[in-house]
Amino acid sequence: MKSVLYYILLSAFITPLSFAQNTIGYLFENNLKANNSSFPDLVILGRQGSYTQEALPELDNMKKTAYQFDRNCGVQFDNNAAHQFIKDSYTIEIYFRFDKLNSWKRVIDFKNRKTDWGCYIFNGKLNFYNLLVSEKAPVNENEYTHYVISRDGATNTVKIFADGVSKLEFNDVDKHTLLDEDQKLNFFFDDLKVTDEASAGAVVMIKISDYVIPPDKILEGFESFKSNINYVAPITETTVVTKKDSSLVHVTLEVKDKETQNGITDITYSIKRGSEIMAGASSEGKSIITTDLPVKTWYHITFKSKGYVTYEDSILTGDFDKEFRSTFFLEKIKVGTTVTLKTLQFERGKAELLPASYAELDKLAEFMTENPTVEIEISGHTDNQGDPKLNVELSENRVKSTTDYLVSKGIEKNRIKGKGYGGSKPIASNSREETRKLNRRVEMTIIKN
User: Fold this and answer.
1) Residue 269 contacts residue 326 (beta carbons within 8 Å)
2) pLDDT greater than 70 at residue 240
3) Which of 197, 185, 172 is nearest to 112 (CA)?
4) Which of 221-230, 296-305, 358-367 has the lowest mean pLDDT?
């Protein structure tokens, strides 16, 4: 019986640098093939399973093909055949269900059955044996779970998520989440140390990325699951770049329609450092924008396209030898569209807007001026810390400050409704500051177009 432990150089010469951020996807459309033929099929473990149509809750119970496997059966990813795709840093995303959740049920095995260590569901909780177990997670028998594990090779930090929310985090200095000499990654298949720790079930999606997906992007991916489940970023050839200036980093920004996942080509954009415009123009019929920017610097970015809500965000570039790549999703202008005003900042515990907020609110005012029939609701949200009544009051006051600023920019007050919800509508767990901060937000929802 397992015991559970709770606790949680660079030279001055020109250097060729190679980089890529890629994802291999397995969508089980009546086969075990990858989205790119350069990568291997999954290997059947145990008895061969079958393909059935499953109603998926995150797709409003629409049906999709699933691969059903028996108890102590599953699938295997051969990293040798995949040319060592999985290295020190990665993200693995699975959408699956188990028939039984009593005791330990194996999810991922990194050591090809030679050890009992690895990822499990333990009585409905996320577990990495023999290190830690989560609080109760949204995992139930015969119900699908969006399960993600990421590993940062630079820090050895491992994070495990359920339905977009981080549930476990630990420092893997002993490399339990790295593949051993066999280079086999097993899913749902029990090890040889302790028997009967597997469940029958079904899987709809496995995605393996060769980089760490940030927690906020994992949450966004789960929340837009309906449009993302069939989408896998295409595998691209590794690009070789000769960089001469170690003060700059190469930046690639891709802009897509959030619903269709198609690239948006008629974009106008700006990249600012403070009030200084670093780059900006039309995308000239392309959905991908590239530029070189100073390293390790915060930038404010704006994307605009006709028929879409203006998008505002901030990015932090890294070292010159690591290309910065990111994809941004724009929302179409339609009733019900909700956008988080990501760069809004207030004085701590108060409703006064900080100057860093003005750029995004100016763009929102500009958007409303360009779309005079649009009416919006501004909603304020807090985390669950402190007095609930005071949290509601604070969120209401922050909504008022936001509304007053828009009105000062010429927007009619009758086009703006507002409400403070306090901590009653969390979008992430309040158990840890890393996820709790996602709940402290101001959102804009289109209520009339």
Assistant:
1) no
2) no
3) 185
4) 221-230
Which pair of tokens denotes residue 50?
């079958």
Neighbours of 84 (CB within 10 A): 11
Closest CA to 214 of 313, 360, 286: 313
Closest CA to 50 of 71, 33, 65, 35: 65
φ, ψ dihedrals at 259, nearest 5°: -80, -45
Place of tokens 């028997």: 195
Domains in the chain: ranges and CATH: 15-228 (2.60.120.200), 245-330 (2.60.40.10), 338-448 (3.30.1330.60)
Q: What is the dihedral of CA 258, 259, 260, 265, to 10 degrees?
A: -40
Tell me the average pLDDT of the chain. 84
Is residue 17 predicted with pLDDT exceeding 70? no
Look at residues 291, 228, 225 and name the one whose alpha carbon lies nearest to residue 260: 228
Instruction: Look up the pTM and report it.
Output: 0.51
DSSP type of residue 41: P
Note whether 374 and 368 are within 8 A (CB).
yes
- Taking the C-alpha atoms of residue 161 and residue 212, their distance in angstroms, rounded to an integer, is 13
The tokens of 18 are what?
């190679």
Helices (H) and strands (E) in the chain, counts: 5, 28
CA–chain centroid gap for 5, Å, is: 28
Question: What is the predicted pLDDT for the residue at 19?
Answer: 38
